[in-house]
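Archive entry. Fields below.
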Amino acid sequence: MNAASSDTYTGRIWRRFSADAFARNGLRIVIALFVIAALAPLLANSHAILRVADGQISFPLFSSLESIEWRFLIYVPLGGLAFLFRQNFVARPGRSALIFAGIIAVVEIAIALHHPINDSTNDRDRAASFKLMPPIVYSPIESTLDQFAPPSRRHPCGTDSTGRDIAARLLHGARISLSIGFVSQTIALSIGILFGGLAGYYRGWSDIVVCRFIEIMDCFPSLLLILVIISFTGSQNNIFVIMAVIGFTSWTGVARLVRGEFLRLSAQPFTLAAKAVGAGDARIILRHLLPNSLGPILVVGTFGVASAILIESSLSFLGFGMQAPTPSWGDILSESRRYIDFAWWLAFFPGLAILITIMSYNFVGEGLRDAVDPRLRVK
Amino acid sequence: MSAPLLRVENLGVHFGPATDPVKAVDGISFAMQPGETLAVVGESGSGKSVTALALTRLLATPPARIVSGQIEFEGRDTLRLPDRELRSLRGSQIAYIFQEPASSLNPVFTIGYQIREAIELHRPEVADVTGEIIRALDTVGIREPAKRLDDYPHQLSGGMQQRVMIAMALACQPKLLVADEPTTALDVTIQKQIMDLLKALKGTNHMAILLITHNFGLVADFADRVAVMFRGRIVETGPTAEVLRNPQHAYTQALIECVPKLGQKQHRLKVIDYAGIE
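PREDICTED_STRUCTURE:
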């Protein structure tokens, strides 16, 4: 790894992070989950990837994809590529912004021109001279007559009460869980950094107001608060509302941390030095305080993603989150309750998926926490 | 005499409750001519650093309160200047070097970036900023400055870090350099190097230096004039040689007595007897 060998701040953190086997493998699993989420429609679909029939070649799977699925498929790998070649972009920010804008424009135009063919017939049983099917030949919302089938070669994780394939639902559910975890934490981090930063940098009145507000927020059990908000807005099954509600109720920890970091860093001589050079508030906050507190912020963010995924699962389990037919891990678990005495796979596989995801995130978070802790310089 | 560069009149800075304040700086007055070096000497807590920070309102208020006085820099009262003008004064006209170079540099940015920040803030007319940074590092005696641009502060030694701080302070060609115990955190050989560097730069740049120190050794061959501070007041001021040779105030005498003399046998170091001074 190139970044690991250089003696920069991030280089040292990366070295210490990757020395920890739990953190390293946790990160691998998290990345794998993202890849699975991005590729879900290619992994589980009733349409064939490639179909040759009557001398005609067609790609039923790709022509059936919705625009949101195209975005997933294109932007997630692009994001990964951009991360790998980040050095090249940092060197020439102006040109890179142009390239990104160009790519996004081309992709969006192509998506706008694309009309998905809503073909409900599946390619499993359709005759063809050649067909290439995905590893799991069922779509997540497709009911079959094969109800309560135990795990088998055809249904690796069994089926549920309406004959939907659990493996397909889990793969697609990964998108719901990961995107809720990510987006809600982005919201929580933004609010937390804003309020915590105000309190920690300006102190005085803003500090008092923000701290009391945090304490008031913390008085409410957040799950109950979320339930109340969702039932009042009457917007179950709206992924954006759920993301926003989780984000708006879980920023207090971030705000507290940022406030503490800013208080600590404000007392550091380099903040005084920056002021003495003539830097204004915005420059001091953005260039001096924020970059120096990024490590701890990243750590709470990682733990936050894990807890947001857990909250979403709890919400679905209680019937307030994403509902069937939308595949969601919590919803599959919720359904399993009624059939637990004979259909163990309904509870086992989504439970396992949640467990592995949360554990990986927590390993990554703990690894990061140890890596950014300056008192642990041994590794 | 020409108009002074800096004129401080009856400056008072208090901490703590208004009813029973700690008078960190208790009505001091002094003036500096352009290009002059003034050393403010005193022990910990005598108000030297508070005075230095008050010059451009760098003190955190609260807890500090500037209760009285005027600070005129080139005829402008910095205590009453709007924040915006004050910011453009900081760094470009009055620059600072602080005690601990290691923590005065931002650990997450390269030194080149940090000097660039100072130049971009105050000298937008400079076209070749990188060349200017290299020149700044070169003047403070950093070898192969072009290779050091991308170094992080922790990769440099303490002496080099302080040189970088000086380069940053000088990058905007200030008229007044406030050096707040610039060598306290460094060992003796590096101290000498840094002081020699400051002395050389003082000559070439024609800037005034306000040196804050508790070390009479530094004062002797560096400063034109000395002001001795004790409990928030300036108790004695005058040309360096005169003050050192013939100290008038009891505290100055005691302070000079504390410096061990070469070739004199002493069983114990002298300690200031405060009761005798009051």
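CURATOR_NOTE: Chain B touches chain A at residues 53, 56, 58, 87-92, 95-96, 98-100, 103-109, 117-118, 121-122, 152, 155, 165, 168 (CB under 8 Å).
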